[in-house]
Structure formats: C-alpha cells, structure tokens
Amino acid sequence: MFLYLVKRTIYAIPIALAVGFVCFMLVQIAPGDPINAIVPPDASEELVEQVRRDYGLDKPLPVQFGLWLLKVVQGDLGRSLATGRPVWADLSSAIGNTLTLAVAASLIGFVLGCVLGGLAGTFRGSVLDRVAVTTAVAGVSVPHYWLGMVLVVIFSVQLNWLPAMGAGPGGSSDWVWDWEHLQHLVLPAVTLSVIPMGIVTRTVRGIVAEIMNQEFVTALRGKGLTRMAIFLHVVKNAAPNALAVMGLQLGYLMGGSILVETVFSWPGTGLLLNSAIFQRDLPVLQGTILVLAMFFVALNLCVDLIQTALDPRIKRA
Amino acid sequence: MSTTTAAAAELAVQAKEAALRSEGYWAGVWKRLRRDPVTIACASVLLLMLLVIVFAPLVAPHDPYQGSMIRRLRPIGTDNHLLGTDELGRDMLTRLIFGGRLSWFMGIVPVFLAFLIGTTLGVLAGFAGGRVNMLIMRVTDVFYAFPSVLLAVAISGALGAGIVNAILALTLVFVPQIIRVAESVTTGVRNLDFVEAARASGASAFTIVRVHVLGNVLGPIFVYATSLISVCMILASGLSFLGLGTRPPEPEWGLMLNTLRTAIYVQPWVAVLPGACIFVTSICFNLVSDGLRQAMDVKG
C-alpha cells in the first residue's frame, strides 16, 4: 500500500504541470496579442517593448512557459490589469471566503445526502425511497443560480428574514465567525448544497442497498444483532466511498461556486473571476483558475490517499 | 421411439414459435419504455416544448424584440401579457418561447459534438490499447483535473463572449467525460470471445470495430451522453448568465435570468420564470435519460 501512496503522489506531479500548462495557454488562446493582457492599452510603444522583453514574450512558447512557471512557483501570479495590484493579494482573501462557502455547503449536502440516501437504500422501493430519489434528481437538475434567486425572493424579499447580498453587514468582505456573518452564509450555502446533496444521496443509496444485500448482513441478522448494531456495520463499510465522493464534491464546489457567488455577491474567487471576465483582466482570470485547479488536483490526491488508507480492500494498479 | 421423435418435433415447433414471438432488442426497449409512466410523461413534455420552440413564430403572441417603455415589468396574468413583461416591456411568454431555441441549441449541440469526438477517440483508445491508449487517456486526465464549471468558464472567459465560443468551451468540457466512458466499455468488449473469433476468422480491424465493437458500445455511450444534456443546458445557461454566452437582446433563458435579476424586488415571480424553464427542461432530460438507461439495461 505504501508503494501505491508514493506512486500516486508522484503521478500527481505531471498532472499538476499539465494543468499549469492549460492555464498558461488560456492567455495564449485569448484573441489578440498576449502582451495586451499584461500592459494597459494606453501604454507607450517603448514600454510595450520593454515589458515584452522583461516577460520573455519575444522567446519561443516552451521557454515562455518555463519562465512563467518559475514565477508561479515563487508565488508571483502577475498583476491585475484593472487594479494594478498583485493577483495573489486579491486572490488570497477571496479563497478563504470561497472555502468557507464550499465547506458549509458540502457539510449540509453531505449530512442531508447521507440521511436521505441511507434511508432510501435501507427501505428500497418504499415511498421514502421514491421521495429521496426524486429529491436527488431535482438536486442535480436544478440550475442552482436560479434556486439562489428563488430563495432570495422568498426569504429576503417576501419574508425579510435573511440578507440577500454580501458576506457581512455593510458589504464587508472579511469573514468573521459571528451571528451577523452567519446569516449571510445561510442562503448561498443552502443554494450550493443541493448539488452535493443530490449526488451523495444517489451514491449512498446505491452503496447501502448493495451492502444490505451482502451475505455478512444476513449473518449479522442471524446472529441476532439489533438494527442499530447492523446499521453501524453498514456505515463502516459505506463510509470510505461516501467520503471520497464528498471530498471530490468539495473541489467541484470550490470551482463551481462562481454562479452562486455572482447571485449573492459573495466576495470569493467566483466574484473575482466574474469581474475579471467582465473587465477582460486576463492575469486575474488565469491566476484564479490556476489556483482553483491546483486545489482540485491536490484534493483529488488527498481523497485517493485517504480512501486507500481507510479501505485496504481497494486494490490499486 | 416414435413418442420421443414426436416430442422432439413438438419441441422444435415450440422453439420456432418462441423465436417468432420474441422481438428484437429495440422492440424490447420500447416495450419497457412504454410501461414507464415517468419517462413517457417527461418525453412528452420535452416533445411539446420542442414543437413550441420550432414553431415559435406561429405560437408566440408578440414580437420577442419589440418592447414598450410604458408597459415594463407587468405582473403575471396581465391582460394581453399572460406571463407579464420584462424590464424593457417585452412580452415574457414570447421571450420564453423564443429563448428556448437558443437554450436548447446550446444544451444539445455541445453534447452532440462531444459524442462524435469522444466516441471516436475513446473507441480508438480502447481498441488500439498500448501507446495510443496511453496518449489519449493521459491527455483526458488533465482535462479531468478541472472541475467542469471552472473549465467552461476558463475557456469561454479567455476566448471572450459569444455563442460559438461557449459551444466550443462546453464541447471541450464533455469530450473527456465521453472518452472515459467510451474507452472503458470498448476495453470491456475488446476482450470478449466473439471479437477474438472475428479476428481469427480473418476480419480486418476496421470491420471488427464497425460490426462487433460499435454495435455493443454505442448504446451505453449514447445513454451516458443523454445524461449530459441536462448538465450542458444548466452550464450553457450559466455561461449566458455570467455574460459569456448569448448577448442581448437575443432571448435566451440564462441571459434573461441575468437581466431580470435586478427586477426581483419589483416583480419577483416574473423574474424567476426563465430559470423555471431551465429547471423543467433539465429535470425532464435527466429522467428520460434514467428511463433509457433502465430500458436499455445499461449498467453504470
């Protein structure tokens, strides 16, 4: 197993490099000279030439990639065209907010999904099963940005219970763990949680139903164990897979929260991406996507490693 | 002796009749589908929507672009405007009908393109094996390392707004997913005995792929592709919602949702209508895909 862990970790390196290359190419495939992504459009001819040399943009593409990579590894993601500030400065505070949102949504989705999926898998074919399956399909089919708007209409506009925008009172973008900030978290987190809820429900239902059909469960019943004790056995067997699905969902939520963040003006990476797209601020776009994708690669690796450690039965190539 | 011969003859007749009675694979699929009320209901809803969208100019009561400044944001149930009007005074029902055209187009075309490209590459990788497989699958792994929403936003964000760019981005999101499915089912089929038998009897690689492999892998890949339509529709509308897909004044559900966002304090229920359309379409596609999967007995 140890060998597998090492092999899996080493395999993540070329993937990370390739992901970096795709992010690097984003600026290259953008229409127009990539130099326009670095200097403001009103820069003088001399400055443009100067920057072109400084950034190595007069060199062949592979060399450019190497130079770019060298900078990225040192934490230099370039400067924003719109604000002139280093990309990393804006990104670092935004990542925290997105992580808060994604973790909250994952927890809600995971708990609901496990309860629904567990019940559905145990009582297959019952009314409960139908309700759970329908909820799961609705969860993965709903355009969550629209669900966010509907929740705002109900809970902010009509009932006036919860705030509709931002991460804190007065549009503050710094997250603090207090009641006022938590109120702002409720609607976006619930909105974002429907996707993992649906997927976890489906997965857990399948796993539980499969386990319940296995012989060892019948044996446990025959031994005279209580429902509760059998339930614990099932949980122990289902946990590694369910956790793996959840771990990946956290990554999908980090990368996919852009729409929900736009609806709720949540000051995270999604809102940053949105304004970068709007202003065609390519360094910010590239930097944000690179960091989010790297996070996803790392998460994938962690999930694989933890799953292998938790469940030694899984044979890996 | 004579009784056994008679019994054997009887059996042969029975077998012949059974063979005549048993239908082909597709007849069986259709029979199972007919008994599935949810799938039939959803398919009917989709068919109805498709008809309305195709014949939009005949069905829609107003002009989708013609607004009126004095009739902005009327509520649902207004005279002459059944579903109210939008922020520029255009008839909502008309805009929703015409909006379906682009939303459906952008939901289906990328999946169709990805189905063509992904199946070709996936079957190639699965059938050829070895280095070809290595090359195709490792490149696929890289695109798999991006969450799909992020990849779509990244590519269409870099390329700039526009329908063609959005379709390009979405196609690129779905190609790796279809390659993975196509590769795994092809690898499964390739090692079966009948492929070996075909090879032994001298069939060329092309014939084996065309007759023996494609016939067995297209079903599962197709079912998987239909399950992507719902995702694609949500993603495509999402891109338009972010201002990356369709551009105003073109009616499209995601874009309409975006432009009506500021109106949720004035006419909340009119503002959320386009999203309801996306939801209904997407859930119907999902349920039809589930029904197909069960009727065609596709695993996974």
Describe this entry's structure for a reader.
The complex is a heterodimer of chains A (317) and B (300). In chain A, 74% of the residues lie in helices and 0% in strands. Chain A has 317 residues and is an all-alpha fold. Chain A folds into two domains: 116 residues, no CATH class; 178 residues, Orthogonal Bundle (MetI-like fold). In chain A, helix 6 runs parallel beside helix 10. Chain A is globular. The relative contact order of chain A is 0.15. The mean pLDDT of chain A is 82. Chain B has a single domain, classed as MetI-like (MetI-like fold), CATH 1.10.3720. In chain B, helix 3 crosses helix 13. The model of chain B has no long low-confidence stretch (mean pLDDT 84). The N and C termini of chain B lie far apart (51 Å). The chains are: A mainly alpha (317), B mainly alpha (300). Chains A and B meet through helix 1, helix 5, helix 6, helix 9 and helix 10 of A and helix 6, helix 7, helix 10, helix 12 and helix 13 of B.
Radius of gyration of chain A (CA) equals: 24 Å
Beta-strand content of chain A: under 5%
Provide the CATH architecture of the largest domain in chain A: Orthogonal Bundle
Strand content of chain B: under 5%
Number of strand segments of chain B: 0
